[in-house]
Amino acid sequence: MSSTRPGSAPGSLRPVAETLGAMVAVSAAFWLVGALARPLAAFLFVLSAPTVVHPWTLATSVYAHAGVGHLVSNAVVVVVAGVPVAAATTRLRFHAFVLGTGALAGLAQVWIGGLLTPTGVVGISGAAFALVGYVAAANPAADALGRLAARLGVPPRVVVVAVGAVALVVTLAFSPAGSALIAHLVGLLLGLVAGRARLLRV
Length: 202
Known about the structure:
single chain, mainly alpha
């Protein structure tokens, strides 16, 4: 008989359920506080510049959602793309990946989007796109395409540009009007890079 430390054994779908639970709990808190005091809700849950004023929103903004429809649509993607990732990694790595990519995608939206107009962001969609990117890049089909490109002598720079172009098209195709396009694109690219590097492999 052997034992493993909590969070160290791969193959469990528990982190997906825990992520969904966090999304529901934090979103409910966001809506409740917002019903009582909208400025306080923004201060506690919305990632916006300058981020140093409320750094905790790097985490709370990932799990908070603007409404039930926003929550449900992101939950579907987290389940579909998160299950194969969670099955192949540890609980700790899964949560770190979701939180890290979600926070980085949110920061990109706030910083880059903020160059045009000040913006705030909530939602796990950046991390959801990262999970999709990871699944797309960390599978045998992606490996086969990589070998084919190498066999045909396609320069790595061309491959990078092509992948970036495909990521942009996917982002535009699967992002509803008014959503955080920059966060979605950055999340997808982070997932693609992590997937090719097999970052979550144990």
